[in-house]
Design a protein that fits this description.
- The protein folds into two domains: about 60 residues, no CATH class; about 230 residues, Orthogonal Bundle (MetI-like fold), CATH 1.10.3720.
- Helix content is about 80%, strand content about 0%.
- The protein is an all-alpha fold and about 325 residues long.
Amino acid sequence: MFRFVLKRLLLSVPVLLGVSVVVFALVHLAPGGPVRVMLGPLSSEELVRQIRLEMGLNRPLYVQYGMWVFDAIQGDFGVSWTVKQGTPVTDIIVERIPLTVELSILSMITAVLIAIPAGIISAVRKDKPADHAARIAALSGISIPDFWLGIILIMIFAVQFSFPWATGGWTPPWVDPVANLQQLFLPVITLGTAYSALIARMMRSEMLDTLSQDYVKTARAMGIGARETVLKDASKNALIPVVTVIGVGLGQLMNGAILTETVFNLPGIGKLLILAIDRRDYRIIQALILFIASVFVFANLAVDVLYAYLDPRIRHDGN
């Protein structure tokens, strides 16, 4: 297992390095820049050149990239230029992480609690009304855009019913747990809907395949009850492939949080990224994209390790 994990960790290094190169190049080649944002559109070209010289933006891109990577390896992502001038980027991101992590975890838990039972029921009741209803709900969940669902929920709960907790904002759970859960209720529903639909479809497919296996038919022929066969045998085996979808989905939830936090005015990483892009704060953009990519990579690593634990054949093949 140690060799398996080590191999996956080593494979993640070139992935993150490639992401850093692409992001750095795209950010610096995009039109505009932090100097124009700081000085305004009416600033003279001479002043812009002087500030770019002081900030080191006049150097070749490969030199800037090398300096940035060298500092990033040491955990130093520099200071913000336009979002919070002079504030270390690491401090800004750490301040926003708790909300995004909480939103992602609650969305995942909600999606799993809804999707796993729905997928099992849909498979057991194949081609019956419960199956049709679950499949329609899953298809709708995948098709509906997160931002559209969020806007509709705000119109219903904030505008129509005037619930104060539906208007946005975030209270840390250690300050007021009740207010925290109320404020995250709609964002969690918005973010978890498409994710739960994906898991439910996967669970249904795996359950149908498992229920058709000979050992399940043999257990039923031996007089073992349908409930025990489904819950103790079939569902456990069907969950193994679903684990992959659940693990990888954590990274997808981090990605989906960008729009969800913007719609609900939540001060998380997603909203920070949008703000940094709007203000051309290169350092925050680069650090955030690298952070999100790292979440994807390590979520996949965790899934690989868990999958190898559940199925030792994968571990041996990986070596």
